[in-house]
Design goal:
- This protein is of the alpha/beta class.
- The protein folds into two domains: 3-106 and 216-283, Periplasmic binding protein-like II (D-Maltodextrin-Binding Protein, domain 2); 110-212, Periplasmic binding protein-like II (D-Maltodextrin-Binding Protein, domain 2, 3-Layer(aba) Sandwich), CATH 3.40.190.
- The chain has helices spanning 3-14, 32-50, 65-71, 81-91, 139-151, 157-160, 170-178, 189-198, 201-205, 228-239, 245-254, 268-276, and strands at 21-26, 53-58, 76-79, 94-101, 107-108, 110-115, 130-133, 163-166, 184-188, 206-211, 215-216, 219-222, 256-261.
- A six-stranded mixed β-sheet has the order 2-1-3-12-4-13. It has a five-stranded mixed β-sheet with strand order 8-7-9-6-10.
- The longest helix is centred in the N-terminal third of the chain and has 19 residues, at 32-50.
- The chain is globular.
C-alpha cells in the first residue's frame, strides 16, 4: 500500500483528521478587546503543543452562546457557569477543564454590591433603587441575585426597584455602580477582583453586601461528538500547563495558576441556584428582554 496513504489512514483513524482547526467560543465577561487579549496567548500555546489551530470567536452577548454554538459549528467554548449548565442541558456539551484562579480557587461566587456612600445596607434599603444586572444567561449577574431576591420576598423586581437593566458584561456592571449610573450591581467576584487590581477606586468606593455559593469558574466544554483523541489532547495540554515553564508564563498572562479536570457534576450548584430563582434551565428563555 502507498506509504502516504497509510500515514493518512493512521492520522484519520487516530482522530486528528477532525482537528486541523478548532473553533472555540468566548463569552463577554469583560470588554471584548480585553477578553481577546487574555485568551490569545492561551490559544497560541495550545496550537504549539498540539498542532491544532485554535480560532477564537467572541460572542457579543451571553445569550448568543447556544444558538451560535450550533449555527457556527463550534467545537467548544469557555463557558461561564450558567452558560455551561445551559450547554450541558441543551446541547450535551462535555466539560473538559477549568482554570484555578490566582486566589487558588477553581470556583467563583457572585457579589451584590453598592457604593459605600449609598446608605444601602439591606435588601429592604434597595426598594425604589436602580439595579444593574449583567445578562440573563449568567449565574452571578442574574440567576443568583434573582434567587436572593425571591428568598427575601421580592417576587416582582418590576415593582420593587425603580428600574433595572442589563450591562452586558461584569466590568460594565461594576463601573455602572462606581460611576453612579446604578445604585445596586451584580457581578462575579473574580471579575470584581480583576477590575479592582487595575482600578483602586473599586475597593475605596464600593462595598459588597452579599455573596453567592461557589460555582465553577469559566471552563472549556466541547461538543460531545468531538474526537476522543482531540479531547484527550486538549485536557492533557491544559492540565499540564503549570508543570511547563512556558505554560507558566502563559498562565500569568491568563491570570490563573493552572487548570484542573471538570465534569458536569461540578455544575450542580448552578442548577440549585437556578431552581431557587424559579428558572427551569431546560425551557429557559435566556435572552434579555
Amino acid at each position: 500500500m502507498n506509504r502516504i496513504l497509510v500515514i493518512a489512514m493512521i492520522v484519520f483513524f487516530s482522530g486528528y483528521a477532525y482537528a486541523a482547526e478548532l473553533t472555540i467560543g468566548l463569552i463577554p465577561e469583560q470588554n471584548v478587546f480585553k477578553q481577546k487579549e487574555r485568551y490569545k496567548p492561551l490559544g497560541e500555546y495550545i496550537e504549539k503543543k498540539t498542532g491544532i489551530k485554535i480560532k477564537f470567536t467572541i460572542l457579543s452577548r451571553y445569550g448568543n452562546i447556544i444558538e451560535r454554538f450550533t449555527s457556527e459549528k463550534m467545537d467548544g467554548a469557555f463557558f461561564g457557569s450558567f452558560t455551561g449548565a445551559l450547554a450541558i442541558q441543551k446541547l450535551g456539551v462535555e466539560p473538559i477543564a477549568r482554570p484555578v484562579n490566582l486566589d487558588n480557587a477553581s470556583t467563583y461566587c457572585g457579589y451584590i454590591f453598592v457604593r459605600k456612600d449609598s446608605r444601602i445596607k439591606t435588601v429592604h434599603d434597595m426598594k425604589g433603587k436602580r439595579l444593574v444586572f449583567v445578562e440573563k444567561a449568567t449565574t452571578a449577574g442574574y440567576a443568583y441575585p434573582m434567587s436572593y431576591f425571591k428568598e427575601h420576598g421580592i417576587n416582582d423586581i418590576n415593582t420593587y426597584f425603580k428600574e433595572y437593566y442589563f450591562a452586558g458584561s461584569h466590568d460594565a456592571a461594576i463601573y455602572a455602580v462606581l460611576n453612579k449610573k446604578s445604585d445596586i450591581g451584580c457581578a462575579k467576584h473574580s471579575m470584581f477582583d480583576r477590575v479592582a487590581r487595575r482600578d483602586p477606586r473599586i475597593e475605596k468606593e464600593l462595598t459588597i453586601l452579599v455573596k453567592s455559593p461557589d460555582v465553577p469558574s469559566n471552563g472549556l466544554g466541547v461538543r460531545r461528538d468531538l474526537s476522543a483523541a482531540v479531547k484527550t489532547q486538549l485536557r492533557k495540554v491544559l492540565l499540564g500547563m503549570d508543570k511547563d515553564p512556558e505554560g507558566k508564563e502563559v498562565l500569568k498572562k491568563f491570570e490563573a495558576i493552572g487548570f484542573l479536570p471538570t465534569t458536569k457534576e461540578d455544575y450542580k450548584p448552578v442548577f440549585d441556584i437556578a431552581r431557587k430563582a424559579g428558572i427551569d434551565i431546560k425551557n429557559y428563555k435566556y435572552r434579555n428582554e
